Amino acid sequence: MKTNHDDPRLTAYLLGELDADERAELEAELAKDPEARQYLDELRQATELLATELPKEEAPPLLPSQRESILTGRLTPYRRNRVLTILVPALAASVVLAVGLIVLLDGERGRQITMDPAVREDTEISKQESANAEGGKIEISDFRDNSAAPAEEAVGGRQAEAKELRADKRMSEPQPAVAEPPPVVTRRMTAPQEAKPAADSIAPMTAMAPDEESAPQRSREIAITSSTGGQVLVTPAQKAEEMPAESFRAASEEWNRESYQQIVENSFKQVTEHPLSTFSIDVDTASYAIVRRTLMQQHRLPPADAVRIEEMINYFTYDYPRPTGDVPFSVNLEVAQAPWAMQNRLVRIGLQGKVLEERPDSNLVFLLDVSGSMGSANKLPLLKESLKLLVGQLTHRDRVAIVVYAGASGLVLPSTPGSDINAIVEALNRLNAGGSTNGGAGIQLAYRTAKEHFIEGGVNRVILATDGDFNVGVTNRGDLVRMVEEFAKGRIFLTVLGFGMSNLNDQTLEQLADKGNGNYGYIDTLAEARKMMVEQIGGTLVTIAKDVKIQVEFNPAQVQAYRLIGYENRLLAKEEFNDDTKDAGEIGAGHSVTALYEVVPMGVEAPRIAEVDDLRYQKAAGAATALADTDGAPADAVEEIVPTEVRHELLNVKLRYKEPEGTTSTKVEFPLIDSERSYSEASADFKFAASVATFGMLLRDSPQAGTASFDLVLELAQESVGDDPHGYRREFLDLVRQARALRQR
Q1: Beta strand 399-405 with 269-270: parallel, antiparallel or unpaired?
Q2: pLDDT tens across 477-496, in order?
């Protein structure tokens, strides 16, 4: 069956305008038409290109009435989508034509080009402008570390900075052969830079032209040079399945300077040896967005260590009951068959944070990375548009300050009422990228600014937005983490937002958020920014419980072995559960948190578990010895040492948490009885969480994946999409299909 490319449903599908029935009908047609799916993917990429490139076009001045309408009003979704429906095809053609003309002309000249004359001007700010809120002025401190340099040295520094930025934008040219040649990525052409008013730009940006030998028809290709010397040319619109498998693997492994913490997957534990499992909860969602970007934008499988299964599961919301008592979250337990190992049981622990009727007053400090590495369209330009969405949610009861950092740090906007949208947006618009990255100095200034305007009983939070490429000042991860951890003790929490690709320092950003009593998100599109800054603003800003820990005790009369799925970076020693000095995770207003355990019941063949020698000195009588002696014995032998009144329980869940400004924890506990439900009897939320966990295991090539396959993931997810108002679960289906295509290649 062939789908008509002029079918308006295709555009409506991309824009999320179809209802559930229409979307399902179209997806069924697309499943039978590979050509239509490819066309749809190209249309999606054109839309994303427009979303990043159109803001760079200089617009004519607005009339006062127009400006007021933009700042105070909102286009209805219907009108906005109708406009996009009409303009997307025409504008896509215009962008492609413009890019082609630029490359064609530059291919003849073979010299440096600048996309806008304004960015060529020397716009470095070398002195402070006095702040005057009534007069509309904004204080801008010199954050470039050249205050003592002579004029000619400053010019040289700017030239060096521009050279560094160009090198960062183009990555690097192939180097002469050496003993250990590093992977090299060469960009044939960089994206046009964002046009900015010369008078207010903080640092200039330029773009490099293609090499003279580069053919115009390859102007938008990316040459990936492998360590063996070969090159692979990849266009942004090229489908993964169109590339040779060998060449695409080189692209997947080498076009990447990102840093992820190694994950050693949790293995099965014998209950007789390890009856307790303890971990800190996690509400971060960055991993899912990184996986989505890697699959859908870069058309490659994500690095295994980028796949944190708990963050993928917790990206989605679940229909858990809201709390009704004094505890700020509800606890929901469910058990059914594990879909990848039907002989085993899958236990779901779900927490649902309370929703606040009114958000507390907020004291926010935006800590923004404006270094040279932030120059690309998916970094600083996207960062600014994302924060404007957040600013639109603030009121006169909130306050916002903006601190920036590059070679040094500076206060761009002193603490300003959230209702003064003009001043905040103007300060954001003035930012431009350039220089090295001194993140440590910026963090210190941001926390000092937040402390000066501290709101008792309110939200006091620093929002760090960066690609994590710290290379000046305090660059050691341990020192940065300790610095943030110390500031968090002063009740100023941290939200970390990651942007961009290729040099994202994911592991540093994750640890900063963890120790800063905050959350870590990755923003790859404006839609993701809207999710965090608008739809889930309560959870992003407001903490309802901190240092939340979970400890699960398994009943040896019912369970042989178990494993915690994900949370490898959040494991705690059993003694740390009752230690109130031990830091743990936070829950935001309205946040849901889900954890899964795979459980091997008694009477089922247990997985292979590494054995240890018998102990020489620990043969004393007692429960521990009795349990150890029953290893491999029938179930009734274990039951004899388990109290009769709890023998039928599968496990007991204990939680500890503190109030946002408290220092002493509260404990609650909930036993779970296995009613032996099959997977088909499980709730839709249980099935969807299981499908996401299965997907994560496949992406990680987990040895625990059992009979899992991408087809199984699609089957599980499709039957549990349910009410999906924002389309996130249906988007997940697209990710699974893309991963399946990449793996089958």
Answers
A1: unpaired
A2: 677 788 888 888 889 999 99
Of all helices (H) and strands (E), which one includes residue 26? helix 20-31
Contact 577, 278 (CB under 8 A): yes
How would you class 464 by CB atoms within 10 Å of its CB: exposed for 0-12, middle for 13-18, buried for 19 or more?
A: buried
Q: Quickly state the pLDDT bin for 71 (edges 50, 70, 90).
A: low
| Distance between CA atoms of residues 676 and 332, nearest Å | 17
How far from chain centre, in Å, is Cα 388? 19
Which residues are registered as beta bridge partners of 364? Answer: 400, 461
Phi, psi of 191, rounded to the nearest 5 degrees: -70, 150
Residue in 276, 112, 291 with CA at minimum distance from that of residue 189 = 112
C-beta neighbour count of 574 within 10 angstroms: 13
Cα separation of 716 and 262, whole Å? 29
| Window from 168-182, 343-357, 656-670 with minimum mean pLDDT | 168-182
Long-range contacts of 99-106 (CB under 8 A, 24+ apart): 99/192, 99/219, 99/220, 100/216, 100/219, 102/192, 103/189, 103/210, 103/216, 103/219, 103/220, 104/216, 104/219, 106/189, 106/209, 106/210
Q: Which residues contact 644 (CB under 8 A, 6 or more apart)?
A: none
- pLDDT per residue over 206-221, tens digit each? 333 333 333 333 333 3
| Interval 543-578: pLDDT, tens | 999 999 999 999 999 999 999 999 999 999 999 999
Burial 643-682 (b: 16+ CB within 10 A, else e): eeeeeebbbebbbbbbebeeeebeeeeeebebeeeeeeeb
The CA angle 512-479-444, to the nearest 5 degrees, is 70
* Closest by CA position to 596, among listed 371, 341, 376: 341
For residue range 313-347, list pLDDT tens digits in order.
999 999 999 999 899 999 999 999 999 999 999 99
Q: Which DSSP category does 221 fall into?
A: -
pLDDT in tens, 346-397: 999 999 999 998 999 999 999 999 988 898 889 999 999 999 999 999 999 9
What is the largest distance, in Å, between two alpha-carbon atoms of the chain?
87
> Would you tell me how many other CB atoms lie within 10 Å of the CB of residue 507?
17
Q: How many residues does the chain have?
A: 745
More confident residue, 12 or 648: 648
Q: What is the DSSP secondary structure assignment for residue 336, as one 8-state letter?
A: E
Using only C-alpha atoms, the chain has a radius of gyration, in whole angstroms, of: 27
225 has a pLDDT exceeding 80: no
**What is the tally of helices (H) and strands (E) in the chain?**
21, 19
SS3 content of the chain, % helix, strand, coil (to 5): 40, 20, 40
pTM for this predicted structure: 0.66
Q: List beta partners, residue 497.
A: 465, 521
Among 163, 116, 125, CA closest to 411: 125
Distant-in-sequence, close-in-space partners of 217: CB < 8 Å, separation ≥ 6: none
- CB of 584 within 8 A of CB of 547? yes
